[in-house]
Amino acid sequence: MIVTENLTKRYGAMTAVDDVSFVARAGAVTGFLGPNGAGKSTAMRMMTALTPPTSGRALVLGREYRDIPNPGRHVGVMLDASAQHVGRTGGEVLRLVAMQLGLGKDAVPAALARVGLSAKEADRRVRNYSLGMRQRLGLAGALLGDPQVLILDEPANGLDPQGIHWMRTLLRDFADRGGTVLLSSHLLHEVEIVADELVMIGNGRIVAQGSKAELLGSRGSIARSLDAPALAGALVAAGFEARPDRDAVHTAASTDEVGRAALASGVVLTELRAAGSDGLEEMFLQLTADHAREGDAR
Ligand SMILES: Nc1ncnc2c1ncn2[C@@H]1O[C@H](COP(=O)(O)OP(=O)(O)OP(=O)(O)O)[C@@H](O)[C@H]1O
């Protein structure tokens, strides 16, 4: 389990992470979402003792990371897959980690197999690795010590669709065996499929958090109509949040409620459906637009 309590980081006048509190529980994949510059990496660096918090704290498995003896045996961390020594082979990178962790020599081939890197690829220098291969190597390093917790910053970056599918399966399996997974992304769709819980962050602050089911379930409907402004007006008059967007209306009302409002106001509906994941995306864009750095809103 990972717990952050009022985690805050200031760089001079700039607050990169602002009072962030959440729990990533064991047996679940928690998606840590936010636009570029939202503060995800800084928060993860604080969780792994690479950056001291200005205030607040992060506990991993009940302790601050720096107090965990041989932390690599408990917490697998991949913060920047491109930060590996490019002059070493993938195998050398992993053998060094294995030595630091006090692992036997079988650990490296097992980790390579787990991330789908062949022995031949492990003999190549990292400089000749694609970004996707570096991600796999970074993940192999994180998994090497057979940890109970994974903290991964944008692990799907550079992976092809098959690689993304593979990564999801691996993380799902890890969580299903009782592990804790925290993974960051600036792409909702990337984490939506695999995450059980979502924490959304914008401009250093948490803007929404909860189970995926909760966040999806509470997001109302999308309706298309021959007169979207009239439909939105009818919904607002009935006490629901509603916003027209060209011929569509996004609303917090359920599909039943939209149907009734349309009937009562005599507006023709051309499409009506629960917002589902579109609703989550809508919410993500809305929530993060206000908090995104200039030029990052979408
Ligand atoms: N060492 C530092 N000194 C000053 N500002 C910093 C430092 N590290 C991060 N920041 C700032 O803190 C903010 C949050 O950065 P962070 O890298 O945590 O965001 P992020 O959500 O991980 O973004 P991305 O998806 O682009 O990696 C940014 O505005 C960044 O410029």
From TrEMBL:
Family statement: Belongs to the ABC transporter superfamily.
Pfam families for this protein: ABC_tran
Domain called ABC transporter: residue spans: 2-228
Listed PANTHER family: ABC TRANSPORTER, ATP-BINDING PROTEIN
InterPro entries: AAA+_ATPase, ABC_transporter-like_ATP-bd, ABC_transporter-like_CS, P-loop_NTPase
A GO molecular-function descriptor: ATP hydrolysis activity
UniProt source species: Branchiibius hedensis
SUPFAM superfamilies in the cross-refs: P-loop containing nucleoside triphosphate hydrolases
SMART domains (UniProt xref): AAA
Keywords of this entry: ATP-binding, Nucleotide-binding, Transport
Protein name (database record): ABC-2 type transport system ATP-binding protein
